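S1.2 Input.
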Amino acid sequence: MKQKLCLARCLLNEPKLLIMDEPASGLDPRSRYEFRQIMRKLHEKGNTILISSHILADLAEICTDICIIDDGRIVLSGRIDEIESGMTMAGSISIRSGSRQQELIDILRKDKLVESISYNEGTVRINYSGSREDAALLLKTIIDHDIPVYSFNTDSDDLESLFMKITS
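S1.3 Output.
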């Protein structure tokens, strides 16, 4: 409740600049969701918001730019969409495509970023080493071959795992 009260007090005067340290700390899931919605609305109004937080999943959802500091020095900064699109996925992708798995597997074998392919109970799973943009292009290629895609799920790096990699 103290966190909610502090946020409400900050917003009373409709500031153009907000500087917040761990604003979502201690908030329940509903309050964190509402906090993110408020931050989006403030951003749409043109407000500048500077947030210091360890809840990286929240930051990935609401921030346009990030700066990761490790041991007092900046180790990564930039637009979050550019950073995320350039992140190497180094993960797996699960694809469900109905009855045309063999055609799907043939397409996947041609992609140089596919490291391995397995099939289990209607799901093709690949280990993939490309960027998120590469994965999007792979999905487009599959669709361009008229293979229906029921799901395309990536189990890839997120902002938190990127943080762990660059600060290890």
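S1.4 Remarks. The first strand starts at residue 17 and ends at 21.
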